[in-house]
Design brief:
The protein has one domain: Cyclic phosphodiesterase (Cyclic Phosphodiesterase, Chain: A). The strands form 2 sheets. Strands 2-1-7-8 form a 4-stranded antiparallel sheet. The protein has a 4-stranded antiparallel sheet with strand order 5-4-3-6. The chain is 35% helix and 23% strand. The protein is globular. The longest helix is centred in the first third of the chain and has 15 residues. It is α+β, with helices and mostly antiparallel strands and 222 residues long.
Protein backbone atom coordinates (compact mmCIF):
# COMPACT_ATOMS: atom_id res chain seq x y z
CA UNK A 1 0.00 0.00 0.00
CA UNK A 2 1.93 2.98 -1.32
CA UNK A 3 2.08 6.23 0.64
CA UNK A 4 3.33 9.64 -0.38
CA UNK A 5 4.50 12.67 1.58
CA UNK A 6 5.38 16.26 0.77
CA UNK A 7 8.68 17.19 2.34
CA UNK A 8 10.99 20.13 2.62
CA UNK A 9 14.49 18.72 2.11
CA UNK A 10 17.11 21.47 2.40
CA UNK A 11 20.06 21.05 0.09
CA UNK A 12 18.73 18.17 -2.01
CA UNK A 13 18.30 19.84 -5.38
CA UNK A 14 21.02 20.75 -7.84
CA UNK A 15 22.31 24.25 -7.21
CA UNK A 16 20.92 24.38 -3.67
CA UNK A 17 22.27 27.12 -1.38
CA UNK A 18 25.52 26.29 0.39
CA UNK A 19 24.02 26.57 3.88
CA UNK A 20 21.30 24.06 3.01
CA UNK A 21 23.83 21.65 1.54
CA UNK A 22 26.03 21.95 4.64
CA UNK A 23 23.16 21.08 6.98
CA UNK A 24 22.00 18.17 4.84
CA UNK A 25 25.50 16.74 4.63
CA UNK A 26 25.95 17.11 8.40
CA UNK A 27 22.73 15.20 9.02
CA UNK A 28 23.63 12.44 6.55
CA UNK A 29 27.01 12.06 8.28
CA UNK A 30 25.18 11.83 11.61
CA UNK A 31 22.90 9.10 10.26
CA UNK A 32 25.97 7.21 9.00
CA UNK A 33 27.89 7.24 12.30
CA UNK A 34 28.48 3.82 13.84
CA UNK A 35 27.49 5.12 17.26
CA UNK A 36 24.21 6.52 15.93
CA UNK A 37 22.82 3.47 14.13
CA UNK A 38 20.71 2.23 17.04
CA UNK A 39 19.13 5.63 17.64
CA UNK A 40 18.49 6.76 14.06
CA UNK A 41 16.56 3.86 12.50
CA UNK A 42 13.31 5.83 12.21
CA UNK A 43 14.74 9.07 10.79
CA UNK A 44 16.88 7.06 8.36
CA UNK A 45 13.78 5.22 7.13
CA UNK A 46 11.86 8.43 6.51
CA UNK A 47 14.92 10.27 5.19
CA UNK A 48 16.30 13.70 6.06
CA UNK A 49 13.37 16.10 5.78
CA UNK A 50 10.92 18.51 7.32
CA UNK A 51 7.38 17.16 7.05
CA UNK A 52 5.02 19.56 5.28
CA UNK A 53 2.25 17.05 4.53
CA UNK A 54 2.53 13.80 6.45
CA UNK A 55 2.47 10.42 4.67
CA UNK A 56 -0.86 9.57 3.05
CA UNK A 57 -2.40 7.12 0.63
CA UNK A 58 -3.79 8.59 -2.57
CA UNK A 59 -7.53 9.18 -2.67
CA UNK A 60 -9.50 7.04 -5.13
CA UNK A 61 -9.13 8.35 -8.65
CA UNK A 62 -5.94 10.27 -7.90
CA UNK A 63 -2.61 9.29 -9.45
CA UNK A 64 1.06 9.75 -8.66
CA UNK A 65 1.53 11.84 -11.81
CA UNK A 66 -1.33 14.16 -10.81
CA UNK A 67 0.19 14.65 -7.37
CA UNK A 68 3.61 15.44 -8.84
CA UNK A 69 2.14 17.89 -11.34
CA UNK A 70 0.18 19.65 -8.59
CA UNK A 71 3.25 19.98 -6.37
CA UNK A 72 5.26 21.31 -9.32
CA UNK A 73 2.63 24.01 -9.98
CA UNK A 74 2.42 24.90 -6.30
CA UNK A 75 6.21 25.28 -5.96
CA UNK A 76 6.53 27.30 -9.16
CA UNK A 77 4.03 29.85 -7.85
CA UNK A 78 5.85 30.54 -4.59
CA UNK A 79 9.20 31.84 -3.43
CA UNK A 80 11.73 30.12 -1.17
CA UNK A 81 11.47 30.24 2.61
CA UNK A 82 14.17 30.30 5.27
CA UNK A 83 14.58 28.22 8.40
CA UNK A 84 16.41 30.76 10.59
CA UNK A 85 18.93 29.91 13.28
CA UNK A 86 18.59 26.13 13.04
CA UNK A 87 19.90 24.32 16.13
CA UNK A 88 19.60 20.92 17.83
CA UNK A 89 16.69 20.72 20.27
CA UNK A 90 14.57 18.22 22.20
CA UNK A 91 11.04 17.58 20.98
CA UNK A 92 9.65 15.37 23.70
CA UNK A 93 11.94 12.35 23.77
CA UNK A 94 13.23 12.93 20.23
CA UNK A 95 16.08 15.14 19.04
CA UNK A 96 15.87 17.30 15.95
CA UNK A 97 17.17 20.41 14.25
CA UNK A 98 14.66 23.21 14.86
CA UNK A 99 14.60 26.80 13.53
CA UNK A 100 14.49 29.77 15.88
CA UNK A 101 11.36 31.09 14.18
CA UNK A 102 8.69 29.05 12.40
CA UNK A 103 6.53 31.81 10.94
CA UNK A 104 7.45 31.38 7.26
CA UNK A 105 7.61 27.60 7.21
CA UNK A 106 4.42 27.22 9.26
CA UNK A 107 2.50 29.38 6.78
CA UNK A 108 3.84 27.29 3.90
CA UNK A 109 2.98 24.02 5.66
CA UNK A 110 -0.57 25.21 6.38
CA UNK A 111 -1.11 25.94 2.70
CA UNK A 112 0.25 22.56 1.67
CA UNK A 113 -1.83 20.66 4.23
CA UNK A 114 -5.06 22.27 3.07
CA UNK A 115 -4.36 22.60 -0.67
CA UNK A 116 -3.34 18.95 -1.08
CA UNK A 117 -6.06 17.48 1.11
CA UNK A 118 -8.06 16.33 -1.97
CA UNK A 119 -5.19 13.94 -2.77
CA UNK A 120 -5.38 12.17 0.62
CA UNK A 121 -7.40 9.01 1.15
CA UNK A 122 -9.49 8.85 4.32
CA UNK A 123 -7.70 7.07 7.16
CA UNK A 124 -8.66 3.50 7.85
CA UNK A 125 -9.61 2.40 11.36
CA UNK A 126 -6.19 0.79 11.77
CA UNK A 127 -4.43 3.96 10.63
CA UNK A 128 -6.35 6.02 13.15
CA UNK A 129 -5.51 3.53 15.90
CA UNK A 130 -1.78 3.75 15.10
CA UNK A 131 -1.94 7.47 15.90
CA UNK A 132 -2.97 6.59 19.49
CA UNK A 133 -5.96 8.98 19.46
CA UNK A 134 -6.57 8.36 23.18
CA UNK A 135 -3.33 10.22 23.88
CA UNK A 136 -4.18 13.24 21.75
CA UNK A 137 -5.72 16.49 22.88
CA UNK A 138 -9.22 17.37 21.70
CA UNK A 139 -7.72 19.75 19.12
CA UNK A 140 -5.20 17.18 17.89
CA UNK A 141 -7.92 14.57 17.50
CA UNK A 142 -9.99 17.03 15.46
CA UNK A 143 -6.99 17.70 13.21
CA UNK A 144 -6.39 13.97 12.82
CA UNK A 145 -9.97 13.51 11.69
CA UNK A 146 -9.84 16.50 9.33
CA UNK A 147 -6.36 16.15 7.82
CA UNK A 148 -5.10 12.66 8.67
CA UNK A 149 -2.40 13.96 11.01
CA UNK A 150 -2.69 15.61 14.43
CA UNK A 151 0.28 17.99 14.26
CA UNK A 152 -0.76 20.46 11.57
CA UNK A 153 -1.90 24.10 11.42
CA UNK A 154 -1.77 25.54 14.97
CA UNK A 155 -0.24 22.26 16.28
CA UNK A 156 2.54 22.28 13.68
CA UNK A 157 6.17 22.49 14.71
CA UNK A 158 8.72 22.03 11.96
CA UNK A 159 11.70 19.84 12.75
CA UNK A 160 14.43 17.90 10.99
CA UNK A 161 14.53 14.65 12.94
CA UNK A 162 17.85 13.33 14.23
CA UNK A 163 16.92 10.42 16.53
CA UNK A 164 14.37 7.86 17.54
CA UNK A 165 12.61 8.32 20.86
CA UNK A 166 15.37 8.30 23.50
CA UNK A 167 15.34 6.76 26.94
CA UNK A 168 16.17 9.19 29.74
CA UNK A 169 19.31 7.24 30.59
CA UNK A 170 20.86 7.82 27.15
CA UNK A 171 19.65 11.34 26.46
CA UNK A 172 22.55 13.25 28.05
CA UNK A 173 25.18 11.26 26.16
CA UNK A 174 23.30 11.60 22.87
CA UNK A 175 22.82 15.34 23.39
CA UNK A 176 26.56 15.75 23.90
CA UNK A 177 27.34 13.84 20.71
CA UNK A 178 24.77 15.84 18.75
CA UNK A 179 26.12 19.15 20.06
CA UNK A 180 29.64 18.22 19.03
CA UNK A 181 28.61 16.83 15.65
CA UNK A 182 26.50 19.84 14.62
CA UNK A 183 28.68 22.57 16.14
CA UNK A 184 29.78 23.71 12.70
CA UNK A 185 26.25 24.38 11.43
CA UNK A 186 24.31 25.21 14.60
CA UNK A 187 22.64 28.60 14.41
CA UNK A 188 22.85 29.12 10.65
CA UNK A 189 19.94 30.18 8.45
CA UNK A 190 18.87 27.36 6.14
CA UNK A 191 17.10 28.26 2.88
CA UNK A 192 14.43 25.88 1.59
CA UNK A 193 14.28 26.35 -2.17
CA UNK A 194 12.26 23.34 -3.32
CA UNK A 195 9.49 20.92 -2.40
CA UNK A 196 10.02 17.17 -2.51
CA UNK A 197 7.53 14.38 -3.06
CA UNK A 198 8.65 11.23 -1.24
CA UNK A 199 7.23 7.74 -1.60
CA UNK A 200 6.97 4.66 0.62
CA UNK A 201 6.31 1.81 -1.85
CA UNK A 202 5.04 -0.60 0.80
CA UNK A 203 4.48 -0.50 4.57
CA UNK A 204 7.76 -0.37 6.46
CA UNK A 205 9.90 0.30 3.40
CA UNK A 206 12.27 3.26 3.40
CA UNK A 207 10.91 6.47 1.95
CA UNK A 208 12.72 7.65 -1.17
CA UNK A 209 12.63 10.88 -3.11
CA UNK A 210 10.28 10.64 -6.07
CA UNK A 211 10.75 14.16 -7.45
CA UNK A 212 11.90 17.58 -6.29
CA UNK A 213 10.34 20.80 -7.54
CA UNK A 214 12.06 24.18 -7.16
CA UNK A 215 10.36 27.29 -5.91
CA UNK A 216 10.37 30.35 -8.14
CA UNK A 217 13.45 32.22 -6.93
CA UNK A 218 12.04 35.44 -8.43
CA UNK A 219 8.79 35.10 -6.48
CA UNK A 220 8.74 36.63 -2.99
CA UNK A 221 7.82 34.26 -0.18
CA UNK A 222 4.19 34.44 0.93
Amino acid sequence: MTRYAIYGVPGVERGAPEAAVRVREAVLRWYARDDAQAITSDPRRYGFHATLKAPFRLAPGRTEDELAEAVARFAASRGPVVLPGVEPAAIGSFRALVPADQTEIAALAAEIVTDFEPFRAVLTTDEVARRRPERLSVRQRALLDAYGYPYVLDEFRVHLTLTNSLADAEALDVDARIAEHFAGVAGIDVPLTALTVAVEPEPGAPFSILQTFPFDTQEPAR
